[in-house]
Design brief:
alpha/beta, disordered N terminus, eight-stranded mixed sheet, single chain, Aminopeptidase, Alpha-Beta Plaits, 2 domains, binds zinc ion, 13 helices
Length: 428
């Protein structure tokens, strides 16, 4: 009897804490739902993002113009309902139980990991990706070259691979998985590496061999490992804060480009878009930032891989009232990307525009920093989907998404060449 009462009390404590976890357990999201909330005014958005800073119960998943995607704990549904009425916005549920999607994904991963094979029918861990990279570097010693950006906060190595078939190629830099939970990004980046090395398709061969590729498959290595081992929905870095018990910084708000200006990031360490105590406070961001600025003459095009929303986004992030001098050219390249993707049998539609125009003010992002370094074609790509699965895109969609990225990037680069952006900046 005593024991039973103790168990009941324990269960209640666990329930009250919501998605809590023990030392070796993964955080669970049983009956957590995701809502699409539509708003009209900046004031409504402020109120929504403010109340979503209650991390126990709410997590911001995504934002599009006049739309927020919020994950909500089962215990906070009534709070959401009353907030919706108070703020006078509309909401609709589009994921009923986040944990069931995580379970399905984990099942697929476990089934295929048991034989230790790397592939694109499942999501690979950092260790699997690095082991695969090592194999690639050994198998293609002339064409590939390993490079190291630096060390993460927790001491992991941030690695990249250069693929170059000949000298005097224009350079394309790809940053991937800066946001930890966006697993489709590193899956796509590794698939592209594999295609560039092994495809027999003439179009892919031209794309692979006429550009130098600099690809960082996982930038936020600590966060990525954390999503595999503890919390599938983690977004930020893993560096603790001096002023809060909330951990991590949004690395894509931490670059030294209009950092924390224009309301482009949050100053609250518990927010998903916390800009950090200072620009470049995160070693991963500092490493990438240094890599970009010290090699900027090698890069003609910069692509930052994200998910989800199916957007191709260009500078600026800080304002929608001003556009970069070559904005029309960026839009022409974006249109080429979107048209090529839509022409595939999947018919996937991408929208495009500047970050501030398409979403909201966001500062300190990689593509703005890269643009300021003189990489005049710098984009953020938000991959599949538009919210049906969100970050937990089923593994069966990895290859279709990667195929879309491939044809989209090929068309984008063709347009860049036509517009004169692939001229060599220096003799290499
Ligand atoms: Zn992202």
């Amino acid at each position: 009897m005593e024991v039973n009462r103790y168990l009941v009390a324990l269960t209640l404590v666990v329930l009250a804490q919501g998605a809590s976890l023990g030392q070796d357990e993964k955080l669970r999201y049983d009956n957590y739902s995701v809502y699409k909330v539509k708003y009209e005014t900046p004031e409504q958005r402020n109120l929504l993002t403010k109340f979503a800073e209650d991390r126990e119960n709410f997590r911001l998943w995504s934002e599009a113009k006049n739309e927020l995607h919020l994950m909500i704990s089962p215990g906070a549904l009534s709070k959401l309902e009353s907030e919706i009425q108070k703020i006078n916005v509309t909401a609709e549920v589009f994921i009923g139980n986040v944990q069931s999607l995580i379970d399905l994904e984990e099942e697929a991963n476990l089934k295929l990991s048991s034989d230790g094979s790397f592939g694109w029918k499942k999501y690979n861990t950092l260790a699997e990706i690095y082991e695969w990279l090592d194999g690639i570097l050994v198998a293609y010693p002339v064409i590939t070259e390993s490079f190291i950006l630096g060390q993460s906060y927790e001491g992991r190595t941030i690695r990249g691979i250069k693929i170059s078939y000949k000298s005097n190629n224009p350079g394309v830099l790809i940053e991937s998985n800066i946001h930890a939970r966006e697993w489709i990004t590193s899956a796509t980046a590794t698939w592209l590496i594999n295609e560039f090395l092994t495809s027999q398709d003439e179009g892919v061969r031209n794309l692979a061999e006429n550009h130098d590729w600099y690809i960082v498959p996982v930038l936020n290595v600590d966060g990525f490992v954390y999503t595999h081992e503890k919390d599938r929905m983690w977004r930020k870095t893993r560096q603790p804060s001096d002023i809060s018990s909330c951990i991590g910084v949004d690395p894509n708000r931490n670059y030294d480009s209009y950092w924390m200006e224009y309301n482009g990031a949050s100053s609250n360490p518990c927010s998903e878009t916390y800009g950090g105590p200072n620009a470049l406070s995160e070693p991963e961001v500092k490493a990438m930032s240094d890599y970009i600025s010290s090699n900027k003459d090698k890069f003609n095009v910069m692509l930052a891989f994200h998910s989800y929303s199916q957007f191709l986004l260009s500078p600026y992030g800080h304002t929608s009232e001003e556009f970069p001098p070559n904005y029309d050219d960026m839009m022409a390249a974006s249109k080429a990307f979107a048209d090529a993707v839509e022409s595939l049998p999947y018919g996937t539609v991408y929208e495009y525009g500047s970050v501030a125009e398409m979403l909201y003010a966001a500062t300190g992002a990689t593509n703005d920093w890269a643009y300021e370094q003189g990489i005049e074609m710098s984009f953020t790509i938000e991959f599949r989907d538009t919210g049906r699965y969100g970050f937990i895109l089923p593994p069966v969609q990895i290859i279709p998404n990667a195929e879309e990225a491939l044809v989209g990037i090929a068309a984008l680069l063709d347009k860049c060449e036509e517009l004169g952006y692939l001229e060599l900046k220096t003799t290499q």
